[in-house]
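step: validate -> pass
step: tokenize input -> pass
step: predict -> running
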Amino acid sequence: MEDSYRIHETLTQAEKVREMTNGANWFYFVAALAVINSFAVVYSGISAFPLALGINQFVDGRALLSGPGESLETARWFGFVINILIAAAFASFAYFARKGSDIAFVVGMFLYVADAMLILSYKDFFGFSFHLLALFFMFKGLLGSRKRYDPSV
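step: predict -> pass
step: emit ->
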């Protein structure tokens, strides 16, 4: 009887870890979409990708409004580098969140909420709804991480 309790507890712990890693993987997904958006802007000139981060759209817009002393190609590549750094930040949140860091979840989600507000200011309602969906799953991952340490959550 005691062994069956341990098996159930192990499965429950495995489910908690799976829920946490699934939530953390959304940060990787967001970072991948940011990189895809950056490549689309640099190589094809598409200025707005529907699933892009708001900060990516802001950086790309600033790059296209570069001063007369800079070439458009240089400004576009500078924006590309900044967007890759932003994507790397979200990938690092994913890495640490997968390790069980609640701080990585909270900080990453806070920045993603700020990005959602930026998307909303651009009146991109499809992008905003995608942000809400991603935040829902990130929050589920945070709860899974918290449940690992505190069963009362």
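step: describe -> The CA atoms of residues 28 and 77 lie 23 Å apart.
step: cleanup -> pass
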